[in-house]
Amino acid sequence: MTGKTAPPAKKPAPAAAKKKAAAAPKEEAAPKEEAAPKEEAAPAPATEEPPAPEHPPEQPPAPTDEPAPIPTEAGAEATPVPAEGSPDPPAELPAPAPEPELEKPKEEPPSCPLSLAVEEVTENSFTLTWKAPEQLGRAGLDGYVVEICKDGSSDWKAVNQEPFLSTRYTIPNLSSGDRIHVRVTAVSASGASVPATLEQPVLIREILQLPKIRMPRHLRETYIRRVGDAVNIMIPFQGKPQPEVSWSKGGQPLDTKRINIRNTARDTIFYIRQAQRGDSGKYELTVQINGAEDKATLDIQVVEPPGPPQNLKLVDVWGFNVALEWTPPVDNGNSEIKGYRVQKSDKKSGKWFTVLERCTRTSCTISDLIIGNTYSFRVFSENICGLSDSAATASGVAYIEKTKTTYQPEKIPQRDMMEPPKFTQPLTDRTTTRGYSTHLFCSVRGFPQPKIIWLKNQMEIREDPKYIALIDQGVCSLEIRKPGPFDGGVYTCKAVNPLGEASVDCRLDVKGEI
């Protein structure tokens, strides 16, 4: 823009005048035809004048040199051609475009379900399993839709009326032999996901499986319960189609009043509320499918404590000992007898004390009884349940009498133990320091015990407080208390007894203080 003021815009000429002006040069250019009368071009319908802008533009648009198009037919609108020397009409301002509305971002639907697989196939149905999609979207997951299509067809049909949230679904009411394509779609408020599809169609047919009983390990051995206990056993099995299950005992059907049997597609439950000894025995389980079968045996043993032993009696009493005998109990409690427990009771205290446990024989010997006491005895029997409720008691008692005995000491031959003195360890030369007490040692043997005499420079040492002489178990010692220079010399130890004498000597040197 420049600093000059733009001239005011002129009003456009009427449309009819513009069209006449445009038609004038056309008539001049056309060839003159004498016979044909001249026809004036029909005026075009007037058009509405555009409203003048409220504020004139700063500069008029630059004129263009291109000629305006000339209409060839009457009644057609012609583009006005500006006359020579006339100012160009002002350009019309374009109408302002409406602002576009901002579109809200669309919520993404959930992603495809994962790990679609067939879990089980029967003669008229099959079961699918899958995993939830990784992305559920902002709106969350409403559920899944399962669709099926027969092989060779493109007609997909939904098998569930409304979406469901489970990741397992069984499609029923199918025909055996059909091949079914299947797909699963995750659905939410924002839309449906890409469907998860099985690569191969599912063949609807019964998958046969031979019957097989899976007997638990603890039931492969004898199953032992006590009288009055409940028996609750579950035994799993397998087989397709669902096998027929039957129980028997000794070839006869079970008594349903005492034994309850409940069968499912995968196991059978054997239940007795309160077991009795009559429930013991071998039960046969049979699982059968169209002639194919599998059998297993369940051995149940119901036990209780045994009865007491029979015919307990004292066989013999001698010195400090008693011998007992008995016979096994009449009733062993439906279990093997593990052993017997023997107890004694003295008449003074009246208390029972166990002397033997788990005695496996029907006889025993009891020792270390006290002289002068009277004893009673009883025996319990024992099986896997424990001890019998009562014991067998011996009818008699055992009295341990005092016996007269004379002590005769053993005669030991006399041995001559006389021996003259003999030093086994001699004296050794020593050097000591003035003012520090010292000891001289030696050892001697002999019988009778020899008399010990100490000498210094061949002079006997008598009762002198400076010297202390001792003898203990043949070890002789002489203590010289705070020796001085005159205590040095040769010391002799002499041993004397009626059979002889012996002596040893040593030299003692006393040095001055350092």
Automatic annotation (TrEMBL):
Similarity comment text for this entry: Belongs to the immunoglobulin superfamily. MyBP family.
Protein name: Myosin-binding protein H
Chain ranges of the Ig-like domain: 211-299, 421-505
InterPro entries documented for this protein: FN3_dom, FN3_sf, Ig-like_dom, Ig-like_dom_sf, Ig-like_fold, Ig_I-set, Ig_sub, Ig_sub2
A Gene Ontology BP annotation from the UniProt entry: cell adhesion
Boundaries of every Fibronectin type-III domain copy: 112-207, 308-403
Disordered: annotated segments: 1-112
Comp. bias intervals (Low complexity): 1-16
Annotated Gene3D superfamilies: Immunoglobulins
Basic and acidic residues: bias regions: 25-41
Job description of the protein: Binds to myosin; probably involved in interaction with thick myofilaments in the A-band.
Keywords: Cell adhesion, Immunoglobulin domain, Muscle protein, Repeat, Thick filament
Coiled-coil parts of chain: none
Sequence ranges of Pro residues compositional bias: 48-70, 87-99
PANTHER family referenced in this protein's UniProt entry, alphabetically: MYOSIN-BINDING PROTEIN H, TITIN
